[in-house]
């Protein structure tokens, strides 16, 4: 780029007279000068207008003062002479102010000056001959003042007209200059710049043959010349890159096929129920390697269902074949080998070795994950069985024990022939216990049949809330704000069972008109709240067996959480639990 710029400076010298920067400075200076001249002229005319309105008002007020004097001169009152003198003193003060304004003003119209002089002369005549002045002379004086006011108005209007002409001329000049500048910029800057943008766009698309039409010897001309040189250099570079891309394409084809086989293998091992590898993958691997045969040998017989393609019959050694083994090993556990047999005359390439090693890692990882899954499932089954045993013991077993005790009591009462009321009471308690045991049995069956068939806990919870909304015939608000994969499958089952148990209690016992479930992350922990605005829980809740509280407590204990219940007979019930992530 630097070399191109040097060549450009040597072959395409910039003309300062046609420089865009110089032109921009000149046009800016012309516009600023025009604006300044317009502002100066407007300021001069406006300054000349200053005080005209006040002067017209003062001269106009003389008419009213003359009328007052004429009325006073006609008065028959004893103090009429004094009143007239006072009015004349006021008039004399006003006309002196007008004389002061004339002395300091820029009135240049001779007719206006002469009219001022006539007004002053008539006033001096009236002032010197007060007793001999007739009413008609006052009227003539008023007419003289009116003529002066008209002349002042006309002169002020001429100044305003001059200001309008100056401003209109300035606007016209600025408009003409702007049109000239726009045309000049369009020819010197906008049109050439569009050409350069089009050339740059075509160069970006790989077309290096376009050339810009002749441009003035300015900055854009230098830029155009430089772009031409860059296009030539890019054309040469592009051709060189095309040759390299063609070479790399052949190399990437092998990599692409290798990745495809590895992806297919990884996907197959991750999605199939028994983690089986398709025999076609081994065939494709041999096709890509295109050098010998490939087989998989496992060391443990119980893993045979994980690898479907066994080619023990193809592992016959030949004196013209080399054997290379890729160990299936993960975290210190050895599972077998991928065996590659290839002719002795050929040398394995690095990408072939990397591909087979990657395949060995995928197979080893799949075997390890399968074994971990089996171990995890065993632990989960063991834990679930323990939970089921505790729930049976705390619910149904206690109810059966209660029934056994009551049956013994009933037997003794019958043997002793106690009163019929006591027998009936015992029988009623046995019936209540049986009903309670049956309800608990149904709750346990519903709990034990629960499965997470949906892909996420959010879908399962929404389905559960929708189910109980329909059952309860009132809205159930649902709030869920948990990071993805923050819960294990086992914890999701426990939470779902607790929520179902809580909503079941609301449905059967709460008599609520509104309820809600909130499962959120707060302060690094997971918070679950189930609430309703129903009738609350009875005081002897621990003695009643059909609220499913034992199941909820056992599930909460499995989550490592303590369950809290806040109940008010007028405000409903809130069940909450908190546990670490």
UniProtKB/TrEMBL annotation:
Residue intervals of the HAMP domain: 187-239
Location of the Histidine kinase domain: 387-581
Membrane topology term: Multi-pass membrane protein
Organism superkingdom: Bacteria
Enzyme class per UniProt: transferase
Claim: Ion transport is one of the keywords in the record: no
Keyword Transmembrane helix among UniProt keywords: yes
PANTHER family the UniProt entry points to: NITRATE/NITRITE SENSOR PROTEIN NARX-RELATED (PTHR24421), NITRATE_NITRITE SENSOR PROTEIN NARQ (PTHR24421:SF10)
Protein name: Sensor protein
Organism, as annotated: Shewanella psychropiezotolerans
Record lineage: Bacteria, Pseudomonadati, Pseudomonadota, Gammaproteobacteria, Alteromonadales
């Amino acid at each position: 780029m630097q070399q191109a710029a040097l060549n450009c400076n040597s072959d395409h010298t910039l003309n300062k007279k046609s420089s865009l920067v110089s032109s921009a400075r000149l046009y800016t200076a012309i516009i600023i000068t025009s604006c300044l001249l317009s502002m100066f002229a407007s300021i001069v005319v406006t300054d000349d207008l200053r005080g005209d309105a006040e002067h017209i008002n003062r001269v106009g007020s003389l008419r009213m003062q003359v009328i007052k004097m004429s009325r006073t001169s006609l008065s028959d009152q004893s103090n009429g002479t004094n009143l007239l003198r006072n009015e004349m003193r006021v008039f004399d003060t006003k006309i002196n102010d007008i004389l002061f304004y004339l002395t300091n003003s820029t009135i240049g119209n001779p007719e206006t000056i002469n009219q001022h002089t006539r007004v002053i002369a008539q006033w001096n005549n009236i002032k010197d001959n007060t007793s001999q002045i007739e009413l008609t002379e006052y009227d003539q004086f008023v007419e003289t003042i009116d003529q002066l006011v008209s002349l002042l108005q006309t002169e002020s209007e001429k100044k305003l007209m001059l200001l309008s002409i100056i401003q209109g001329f300035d606007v016209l000049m600025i408009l003409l200059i702007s049109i000239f500048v726009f045309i000049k910029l369009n020819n010197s800057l906008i049109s050439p710049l569009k050409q350069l943008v089009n050339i740059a766009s075509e160069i970006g698309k790989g077309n290096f043959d376009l050339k810009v039409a002749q441009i003035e010897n300015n900055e854009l001309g230098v830029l155009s010349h430089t772009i031409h040189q860059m296009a030539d250099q890019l054309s040469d570079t592009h051709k060189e890159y095309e040759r390299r891309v063609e070479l790399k394409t052949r190399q990437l084809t092998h990599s692409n096929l290798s990745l495809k086989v590895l992806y297919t293998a990884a996907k197959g091992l991750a999605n199939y129920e028994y983690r089986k590898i398709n025999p076609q993958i081994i065939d494709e691997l041999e096709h890509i390697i295109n050098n010998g045969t490939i087989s998989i040998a496992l060391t443990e017989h119980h893993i045979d269902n994980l690898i479907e393609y066994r080619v023990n019959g193809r592992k016959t050694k030949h004196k013209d074949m080399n054997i290379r083994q890729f160990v299936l090993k993960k975290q210190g556990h050895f599972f077998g080998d991928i065996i590659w047999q290839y002719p002795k005359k050929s040398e394995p390439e690095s990408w072939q070795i990397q591909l087979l090693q990657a395949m060995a890692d995928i197979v080893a990882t799949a075997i390890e994950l399968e074994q971990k899954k089996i171990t995890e499932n065993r632990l989960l089954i063991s834990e679930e069985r323990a939970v089921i045993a505790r729930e049976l013991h705390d619910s149904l077993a206690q109810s059966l024990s209660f029934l056994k005790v009551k049956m013994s009591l009933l037997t003794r009462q019958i043997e002793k022939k106690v009163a019929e009321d006591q027998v009936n009471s015992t029988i009623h308690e046995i019936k209540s216990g049986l009903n309670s045991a049956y309800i608990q049995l149904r709750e346990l069956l519903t709990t034990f049949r629960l499965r997470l068939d949906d892909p996420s806990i959010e879908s399962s919870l929404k389905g559960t809330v929708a189910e109980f909304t329909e059952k309860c015939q009132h809205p159930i608000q649902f709030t869920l704000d948990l990071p993805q994969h923050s819960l294990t499958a086992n914890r999701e089952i426990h939470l779902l069972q607790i929520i179902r148990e809580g909503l079941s209690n609301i449905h059967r016992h709460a008599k609520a008109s509104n309820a809600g479930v909130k499962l959120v992350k707060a302060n690094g922990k997971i918070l679950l709240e189930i609430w309703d605005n129903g009738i609350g829980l009875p005081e002897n809740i621990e003695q009643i067996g059909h609220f499913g509280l034992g199941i909820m407590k056992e599930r909460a204990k499995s989550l490592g959480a303590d369950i809290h219940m806040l109940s008010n007979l007028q405000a409903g019930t809130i069940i909450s639990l908190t546990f670490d992530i």
